[in-house]
């Protein structure tokens, strides 16, 4: 699919001159050497209002960003895995309140960190089982090794889990390894960004009887026409793959990192439902339209509208935001004013969040600074792709929101 604007932006309520501010502001990041290149897509009422791209998908080779460029989307994999799980919920395979140890026996008796160091932790038994909804909401007590904020994080790193998984370990083996590590808190007690969605992917595998990549391909990608979304990129598709960059210490200029970026060119041993996919703007655009339309696209329905509404409602206790319930660690969105649903952040209070977006906006992003959001109130979807790791390097998402909404007149 060749992404391009499909109508005069004014027909969709946008000021074209104001939309051009997106291009000028984001181009400065490239001109200043801070980003390699980028692509953004703004759609309203199912019609593309604005597509722009700038810079390179591969600086060293002189290859420009194209509309068919393939991007590592990292944690933008999480909403896909969440959709897969909710499809199984709709089919009665499991319920949101079911303990996950019914399918993943390694989690039958989790223990919770109480005190001590990473080398000599003191733990206690979990007071309740980890349930499916704990995985979907990041309230299971699991963590990430890259947080560097808790003794259990250090245990994850010592076990080989920091930015990725140990070489050669399958998803089943990784799930067993995570189950052996302590939880950071009792299930349901707090919110902590974590490998929960990777465990959810393993749950999908066991409950469906299909490897995660096959489930995605057969049950989600093929029905939705997402032909270029995969766990690895090979063959002719490599020509369109963007290189991965990191900020140079001190200058923050984008520097190529093939040591980490090349992993997407090989089939992974561990199919990470939390971070493993590569995709194109056209494919993920179809995914966002499927969500905006309440679980249906082009006559294909994967979820009911009620399920999508449940997924995109705030599931944090008493409707609080992440600032009140989450640990003050890295995540792909701010905490003030944002709650969390079943696989998405959910905007509860635009004033507290200091954003022009609407109540009910749901979103997520990826570690290489990719991002999307869906605003049901304005029937709006926005996509942004680049390849700079980590996503906390520049305030791209906040600025993009401001730039999109100031153009909506």
Automatic annotation (TrEMBL):
InterPro entries: Beta-lactam-related, Beta-lactam/transpept-like, Diverse_Enzym_Activities. Residues 22-402 form the Beta-lactamase-related domain. It comes from the Bacteria. The keyword Hydrolase applies. This is Serine hydrolase. GO terms for molecular function: hydrolase activity. It holds the Pfam family Beta-lactamase. Keywords: Hydrolase.
């Amino acid at each position: 699919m060749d992404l391009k604007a499909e109508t005069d932006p004014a027909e969709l309520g946008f000021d074209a001159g104001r939309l051009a501010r997106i291009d000028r502001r984001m181009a400065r990041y490239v001109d200043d050497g801070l980003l390699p290149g980028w692509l953004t897509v703004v759609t309203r009422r199912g019609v593309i209002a604005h597509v722009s791209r700038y810079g390179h998908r591969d600086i060293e080779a002189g290859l420009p960003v194209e509309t068919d460029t393939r991007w590592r989307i990292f944690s933008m994999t999480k909403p896909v895995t969440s959709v897969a799980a909710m499809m199984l919920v709709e089919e009665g395979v499991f319920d949101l309140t079911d303990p996950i140890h019914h399918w993943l026996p390694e989690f039958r008796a989790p223990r919770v960190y109480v005190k001590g160091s990473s080398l000599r932790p003191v733990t206690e038994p979990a007071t309740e089982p980890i349930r499916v909804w704990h995985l979907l909401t990041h309230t299971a007590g699991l963590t990430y090794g890259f947080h560097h904020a808790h003794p259990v994080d250090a245990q994850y790193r010592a076990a080989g889990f920091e930015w990725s998984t140990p070489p050669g370990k399958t998803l089943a083996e990784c799930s067993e390894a995570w189950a052996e590590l302590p939880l950071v808190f009792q299930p349901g007690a707090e919110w902590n960004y974590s490998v929960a969605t990777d465990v959810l992917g393993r749950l999908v595998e066991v409950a469906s009887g299909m490897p995660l990549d096959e489930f995605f391909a057969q049950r989600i990608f093929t029905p939705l026409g997402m032909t270029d979304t995969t766990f690895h990129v090979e063959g002719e598709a490599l020509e369109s793959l963007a290189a991965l960059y990191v900020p140079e210490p001190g200058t923050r200029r984008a520097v190529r990192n093939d040591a980490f970026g090349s992993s997407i060119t090989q089939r992974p041993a561990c199919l990470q439902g939390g971070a493993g996919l590569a995709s194109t703007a056209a494919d993920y655009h179809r995914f966002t339209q499927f969500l905006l339309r309440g679980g249906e696209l082009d006559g294909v329905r994967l979820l009911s509208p009620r399920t999508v509404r449940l997924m995109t409602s705030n599931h944090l206790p008493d409707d609080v935001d992440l600032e009140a319930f989450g640990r003050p660690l890295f995540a792909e969105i701010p905490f003030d004013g944002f709650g969390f649903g079943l696989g998405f952040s959910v905007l509860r209070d635009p004033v507290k969040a200091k954003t022009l977006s609407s109540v009910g906006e749901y979103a997520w992003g990826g570690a290489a600074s990719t991002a999307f959001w869906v605003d049901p109130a304005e029937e709006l979807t926005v996509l942004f792709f680049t390849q700079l790791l980590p996503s906390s390097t520049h305030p791209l998402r906040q600025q993009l929101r401001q730039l999109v909404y100031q153009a909506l007149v």
